[in-house]
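User: Hi! I'm working on a homework problem where we have to compare a predicted structure to a textbook description. Could you give me the structure for the chain below?
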Amino acid sequence: MDWHSSIKGFKGYLLLEKSLSKNSIAAYLHDITNLQHFFDTKKITVNPENVTFPQLQEFIGFIIELGIGPRSQARMISGIRAFYKYLLMEDAIKQSPAELLELPRLPQKLPEVLSIEEIDLLINAIDLSTPEGQRNKAMLETLYCCGLRVTELVTLKISDIIFEEEFVRVIGKGNKQRLVPLGKSAEKYIKIYLEEVRPHIAVQKDSEDIVFLNRRGKGMSREMVFIIIQKLKMKAGLNKKISPHTFRHSFATHLVEGGADLRAVQEMLGHESITTTEIYTHIDREYLRDAILRFHPRK
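Assistant: Happy to help. Predicted C-alpha coordinates:
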Protein backbone atom coordinates (compact mmCIF):
# COMPACT_ATOMS: atom_id res chain seq x y z
CA MET A 1 0.00 0.00 0.00
CA ASP A 2 1.63 3.24 -1.14
CA TRP A 3 1.28 6.67 0.47
CA HIS A 4 -1.24 7.99 -2.06
CA SER A 5 -3.72 5.12 -1.67
CA SER A 6 -3.20 5.00 2.10
CA ILE A 7 -3.91 8.70 2.54
CA LYS A 8 -6.93 8.46 0.22
CA GLY A 9 -8.33 5.57 2.24
CA PHE A 10 -7.57 7.38 5.50
CA LYS A 11 -9.54 10.39 4.24
CA GLY A 12 -12.56 8.19 3.55
CA TYR A 13 -12.24 6.60 7.00
CA LEU A 14 -12.18 10.00 8.73
CA LEU A 15 -15.17 11.20 6.73
CA LEU A 16 -17.40 8.14 6.83
CA GLU A 17 -16.38 6.31 10.00
CA LYS A 18 -15.32 9.17 12.28
CA SER A 19 -17.66 11.85 10.83
CA LEU A 20 -15.04 14.54 11.36
CA SER A 21 -15.38 18.09 10.05
CA LYS A 22 -13.62 19.21 6.87
CA ASN A 23 -11.12 21.22 8.91
CA SER A 24 -10.24 18.28 11.16
CA ILE A 25 -9.85 15.96 8.17
CA ALA A 26 -7.63 18.50 6.40
CA ALA A 27 -5.43 18.79 9.53
CA TYR A 28 -5.01 15.00 9.80
CA LEU A 29 -4.17 14.63 6.11
CA HIS A 30 -1.71 17.52 6.32
CA ASP A 31 0.13 15.76 9.16
CA ILE A 32 0.45 12.49 7.25
CA THR A 33 1.55 14.33 4.11
CA ASN A 34 4.24 16.06 6.17
CA LEU A 35 5.42 12.66 7.38
CA GLN A 36 5.64 11.43 3.79
CA HIS A 37 7.55 14.57 2.74
CA PHE A 38 9.97 14.02 5.62
CA PHE A 39 10.87 10.57 4.28
CA ASP A 40 11.18 11.95 0.75
CA THR A 41 13.48 14.75 1.96
CA LYS A 42 15.65 12.28 3.87
CA LYS A 43 15.63 9.98 0.80
CA ILE A 44 14.15 7.20 2.92
CA THR A 45 12.23 4.80 0.67
CA VAL A 46 9.47 3.38 2.84
CA ASN A 47 5.79 2.64 2.44
CA PRO A 48 3.33 3.42 5.28
CA GLU A 49 3.13 -0.21 6.43
CA ASN A 50 6.93 -0.47 6.72
CA VAL A 51 7.50 2.64 8.84
CA THR A 52 9.20 1.85 12.17
CA PHE A 53 8.96 3.42 15.60
CA PRO A 54 12.54 4.80 15.43
CA GLN A 55 11.70 6.45 12.11
CA LEU A 56 8.66 8.13 13.65
CA GLN A 57 10.83 9.25 16.57
CA GLU A 58 13.25 10.75 14.06
CA PHE A 59 10.36 12.65 12.44
CA ILE A 60 9.22 14.02 15.83
CA GLY A 61 12.78 15.09 16.56
CA PHE A 62 12.85 16.83 13.18
CA ILE A 63 9.70 18.89 13.83
CA ILE A 64 10.98 19.82 17.29
CA GLU A 65 14.19 21.13 15.72
CA LEU A 66 12.07 23.17 13.32
CA GLY A 67 10.59 24.96 16.33
CA ILE A 68 7.12 23.39 16.14
CA GLY A 69 5.41 24.05 19.50
CA PRO A 70 4.15 21.38 21.92
CA ARG A 71 0.49 21.83 20.95
CA SER A 72 1.22 21.38 17.25
CA GLN A 73 3.46 18.41 18.08
CA ALA A 74 0.63 16.82 20.05
CA ARG A 75 -1.80 17.35 17.19
CA MET A 76 0.61 15.82 14.66
CA ILE A 77 1.26 12.80 16.88
CA SER A 78 -2.51 12.33 17.29
CA GLY A 79 -2.86 12.44 13.52
CA ILE A 80 -0.14 9.84 13.03
CA ARG A 81 -1.70 7.59 15.67
CA ALA A 82 -5.09 7.85 13.95
CA PHE A 83 -3.49 7.00 10.59
CA TYR A 84 -1.91 3.83 11.91
CA LYS A 85 -5.08 2.90 13.75
CA TYR A 86 -6.79 3.04 10.36
CA LEU A 87 -4.07 0.80 8.82
CA LEU A 88 -4.57 -1.68 11.65
CA MET A 89 -8.31 -1.79 10.95
CA GLU A 90 -7.55 -2.38 7.28
CA ASP A 91 -5.20 -5.27 8.22
CA ALA A 92 -2.40 -3.48 6.37
CA ILE A 93 -0.20 -3.79 9.47
CA LYS A 94 -0.16 -6.09 12.49
CA GLN A 95 1.12 -3.54 15.02
CA SER A 96 1.14 0.25 15.05
CA PRO A 97 4.62 1.85 15.11
CA ALA A 98 2.94 4.97 16.55
CA GLU A 99 1.64 3.17 19.64
CA LEU A 100 4.60 4.16 21.82
CA LEU A 101 4.84 7.77 20.65
CA GLU A 102 4.53 10.03 23.68
CA LEU A 103 2.61 13.28 23.60
CA PRO A 104 4.57 16.33 24.81
CA ARG A 105 3.60 17.89 28.11
CA LEU A 106 1.46 20.90 27.35
CA PRO A 107 1.61 24.07 29.42
CA GLN A 108 -1.69 25.04 31.04
CA LYS A 109 -3.02 27.81 28.85
CA LEU A 110 -6.03 29.66 30.18
CA PRO A 111 -8.36 31.01 27.52
CA GLU A 112 -9.03 34.72 27.08
CA VAL A 113 -12.25 35.59 28.87
CA LEU A 114 -14.43 38.68 28.78
CA SER A 115 -16.15 40.00 31.88
CA ILE A 116 -19.93 40.40 31.86
CA GLU A 117 -19.39 44.15 31.54
CA GLU A 118 -17.11 43.65 28.51
CA ILE A 119 -19.66 41.35 26.88
CA ASP A 120 -22.28 44.07 27.36
CA LEU A 121 -19.91 46.72 25.99
CA LEU A 122 -19.20 44.67 22.88
CA ILE A 123 -22.83 43.78 22.15
CA ASN A 124 -24.05 47.31 22.90
CA ALA A 125 -21.66 48.59 20.21
CA ILE A 126 -23.88 46.99 17.55
CA ASP A 127 -25.84 49.44 15.40
CA LEU A 128 -29.41 48.18 15.66
CA SER A 129 -30.71 50.63 13.06
CA THR A 130 -29.61 48.29 10.24
CA PRO A 131 -30.82 44.78 9.29
CA GLU A 132 -27.25 43.50 9.64
CA GLY A 133 -27.06 45.00 13.12
CA GLN A 134 -30.23 43.17 14.16
CA ARG A 135 -28.75 39.95 12.80
CA ASN A 136 -25.41 40.53 14.53
CA LYS A 137 -27.15 41.21 17.83
CA ALA A 138 -29.02 37.91 17.56
CA MET A 139 -25.82 36.07 16.57
CA LEU A 140 -23.68 37.33 19.43
CA GLU A 141 -26.43 36.83 21.99
CA THR A 142 -26.71 33.24 20.74
CA LEU A 143 -22.93 32.73 20.85
CA TYR A 144 -22.79 33.92 24.45
CA CYS A 145 -26.08 32.52 25.76
CA CYS A 146 -25.53 29.05 24.31
CA GLY A 147 -21.73 28.73 24.32
CA LEU A 148 -21.64 27.64 20.69
CA ARG A 149 -18.61 27.06 18.52
CA VAL A 150 -18.61 29.41 15.54
CA THR A 151 -19.24 26.51 13.14
CA GLU A 152 -22.25 25.50 15.23
CA LEU A 153 -23.52 29.08 15.05
CA VAL A 154 -23.29 29.50 11.28
CA THR A 155 -24.87 26.08 10.64
CA LEU A 156 -27.67 26.55 13.19
CA LYS A 157 -31.06 25.67 11.70
CA ILE A 158 -34.44 27.22 12.38
CA SER A 159 -35.84 23.72 12.83
CA ASP A 160 -33.33 23.11 15.64
CA ILE A 161 -34.62 26.00 17.77
CA ILE A 162 -37.32 24.71 20.10
CA PHE A 163 -38.87 27.94 21.30
CA GLU A 164 -41.62 26.22 23.31
CA GLU A 165 -39.09 24.37 25.43
CA GLU A 166 -36.45 27.17 25.26
CA PHE A 167 -33.79 24.81 23.96
CA VAL A 168 -31.50 24.68 20.94
CA ARG A 169 -30.52 21.41 19.28
CA VAL A 170 -26.83 21.73 18.39
CA ILE A 171 -24.89 19.53 15.97
CA GLY A 172 -21.34 19.54 17.34
CA LYS A 173 -18.04 17.83 16.60
CA GLY A 174 -18.31 14.32 15.22
CA ASN A 175 -21.93 15.06 14.23
CA LYS A 176 -22.94 14.64 17.86
CA GLN A 177 -26.14 16.31 19.03
CA ARG A 178 -26.73 18.10 22.30
CA LEU A 179 -29.48 20.27 23.76
CA VAL A 180 -28.54 23.69 25.14
CA PRO A 181 -30.87 26.09 27.02
CA LEU A 182 -31.65 29.02 24.75
CA GLY A 183 -31.72 31.85 27.26
CA LYS A 184 -34.21 34.71 27.34
CA SER A 185 -31.97 37.30 25.70
CA ALA A 186 -30.97 35.06 22.79
CA GLU A 187 -34.59 33.95 22.32
CA LYS A 188 -35.79 37.57 22.21
CA TYR A 189 -33.32 38.73 19.57
CA ILE A 190 -33.53 35.58 17.45
CA LYS A 191 -37.30 36.09 17.25
CA ILE A 192 -36.87 39.75 16.28
CA TYR A 193 -34.42 38.73 13.55
CA LEU A 194 -36.59 35.88 12.25
CA GLU A 195 -39.78 37.96 12.27
CA GLU A 196 -38.55 41.41 11.17
CA VAL A 197 -35.30 40.97 9.21
CA ARG A 198 -34.96 37.53 7.67
CA PRO A 199 -38.32 37.61 5.77
CA HIS A 200 -36.96 40.49 3.66
CA ILE A 201 -33.94 38.47 2.48
CA ALA A 202 -34.04 36.54 -0.81
CA VAL A 203 -33.02 33.16 0.58
CA GLN A 204 -30.83 31.02 -1.67
CA LYS A 205 -31.41 27.35 -2.33
CA ASP A 206 -30.19 25.03 0.45
CA SER A 207 -30.16 27.93 2.95
CA GLU A 208 -33.91 27.92 3.66
CA ASP A 209 -33.46 26.41 7.13
CA ILE A 210 -30.26 28.27 8.09
CA VAL A 211 -30.92 30.87 10.81
CA PHE A 212 -28.30 33.53 10.10
CA LEU A 213 -27.93 34.69 6.50
CA ASN A 214 -25.72 37.20 4.71
CA ARG A 215 -27.05 39.86 2.33
CA ARG A 216 -27.04 37.39 -0.55
CA GLY A 217 -29.34 35.01 1.29
CA LYS A 218 -26.71 32.36 2.03
CA GLY A 219 -25.38 31.12 5.34
CA MET A 220 -22.76 33.19 7.12
CA SER A 221 -19.12 32.12 6.95
CA ARG A 222 -16.97 31.66 10.05
CA GLU A 223 -14.61 34.31 8.73
CA MET A 224 -17.43 36.86 8.47
CA VAL A 225 -18.39 36.31 12.11
CA PHE A 226 -14.77 36.89 13.10
CA ILE A 227 -14.61 40.13 11.09
CA ILE A 228 -17.85 41.38 12.67
CA ILE A 229 -16.45 40.79 16.15
CA GLN A 230 -13.16 42.52 15.31
CA LYS A 231 -15.00 45.62 14.12
CA LEU A 232 -17.13 45.68 17.26
CA LYS A 233 -14.04 45.27 19.43
CA MET A 234 -12.46 48.34 17.87
CA LYS A 235 -15.70 50.29 18.17
CA ALA A 236 -16.06 49.33 21.83
CA GLY A 237 -12.42 50.17 22.54
CA LEU A 238 -11.59 46.76 24.00
CA ASN A 239 -7.87 45.98 24.08
CA LYS A 240 -8.11 42.20 24.19
CA LYS A 241 -7.62 39.36 21.76
CA ILE A 242 -11.21 38.46 20.95
CA SER A 243 -12.60 35.83 18.60
CA PRO A 244 -15.96 34.01 18.32
CA HIS A 245 -14.49 31.34 20.62
CA THR A 246 -13.97 34.00 23.32
CA PHE A 247 -17.75 34.09 23.76
CA ARG A 248 -17.77 30.32 24.35
CA HIS A 249 -14.98 30.60 26.94
CA SER A 250 -16.78 33.49 28.63
CA PHE A 251 -20.06 31.52 28.65
CA ALA A 252 -18.37 28.60 30.43
CA THR A 253 -16.41 30.78 32.83
CA HIS A 254 -19.42 32.82 33.92
CA LEU A 255 -21.41 29.64 34.52
CA VAL A 256 -18.64 28.16 36.66
CA GLU A 257 -18.24 31.43 38.54
CA GLY A 258 -21.97 31.37 39.22
CA GLY A 259 -21.65 27.94 40.84
CA ALA A 260 -22.59 25.71 37.91
CA ASP A 261 -21.93 21.99 38.16
CA LEU A 262 -19.02 21.02 35.89
CA ARG A 263 -20.98 18.08 34.50
CA ALA A 264 -23.77 20.43 33.42
CA VAL A 265 -21.26 22.79 31.78
CA GLN A 266 -19.61 19.80 30.09
CA GLU A 267 -22.96 18.79 28.59
CA MET A 268 -23.74 22.29 27.37
CA LEU A 269 -20.30 22.71 25.78
CA GLY A 270 -20.37 19.26 24.20
CA HIS A 271 -17.05 18.20 25.71
CA GLU A 272 -16.41 14.45 25.55
CA SER A 273 -14.22 14.55 28.65
CA ILE A 274 -14.76 16.44 31.90
CA THR A 275 -11.00 17.10 31.85
CA THR A 276 -11.50 19.56 29.00
CA THR A 277 -14.14 21.41 30.99
CA GLU A 278 -12.00 21.52 34.15
CA ILE A 279 -9.77 24.22 32.64
CA TYR A 280 -12.45 26.70 33.69
CA THR A 281 -11.98 25.79 37.36
CA HIS A 282 -8.47 27.25 37.19
CA ILE A 283 -9.82 30.69 36.32
CA ASP A 284 -11.31 31.23 39.76
CA ARG A 285 -11.74 28.24 42.08
CA GLU A 286 -13.55 30.13 44.83
CA TYR A 287 -16.74 30.11 42.78
CA LEU A 288 -16.97 26.31 42.79
CA ARG A 289 -19.09 26.21 45.96
CA ASP A 290 -21.78 23.70 45.10
CA ALA A 291 -23.12 21.47 42.37
CA ILE A 292 -26.25 23.43 41.59
CA LEU A 293 -26.58 25.02 38.19
CA ARG A 294 -27.83 28.45 39.17
CA PHE A 295 -28.13 30.82 36.28
CA HIS A 296 -26.38 32.37 33.36
CA PRO A 297 -26.22 36.19 33.25
CA ARG A 298 -28.31 36.25 30.06
CA LYS A 299 -31.00 33.83 31.22
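For your comparison, note the following. The chain is about 50% helix and 5% strand. The first helix runs from residue 3 to 17. Good luck with the assignment!
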